Fold this sequence. Notes:
Layout: H1 7-20, H2 28-35, H3 39-51, E1 55-57, E2 63-65, H4 68-74, H5 76-95, E3 98-105, E4 108-115, E5 131-133, H6 138-148, E6 157-160, E7 167-173, E8 182-189, H7 197-212
Antiparallel strand pairs: 1-2, 3-4, 3-8, 4-5, 6-7, 7-8
Helix pairs in contact: 2-3, 5-7
Amino acid sequence: MTAETSQTLDRGLRVLKLLADTDHGLTVTELSNKLGVNRTVVYRLLATLEQHALIRRDLGGRARVGLGVLRLGRQVHPLVREAALPALRSLAEDIGATAHLTLVDGAEALAVAVVEPTWTDYHVAYRAGFRHPLDRGAAGRAILAARRQPVDEPGYTLTHGELEAGASGAAAPLIGVTGVEGSVGVVMLADAVPERVGPRVVDAAREVAEALR
Length: 213
């Protein structure tokens, strides 16, 4: 801690991080031990965070992340979209297909940024805000594949006709971006994805990940 920082705020943020890293919540005693402070301090931190809906406590007294964190998280989408746009524009123009950045939102895949190519006679219309199950479409399947086999060098996922008849997709997961789970991909009107598209999508996903770090 330096003279310019707030010890109370630092402790509150550490509480949120600890709760975010557990699925079953933490008790006051557990938080006290992890933070190295007495229980009275933890009670005060939790009361303040609960007042802002950033944490909630169940009937057993275990603290968990609250819905207020989700409201804050929604404001991240515009920042992520802005950072991803240069790589998406390059991808869309290079491939001649609609490029998109998709993030996890609960059990669904949510397109938060979409760029359509400027030079093609026709392309798939795909809009920001489009949702679909994670287990359908290249964007969601790429994310699920990264969950099952997390690796430093991602591969890519190809699909055909899962979200729109006659459309094929290719997507690669974002790797190494703390707090962001998503993928970058393209969707095109084709029976099959050309061979060069997969590696190009992986490169674009890497560019977006670097922009978000």
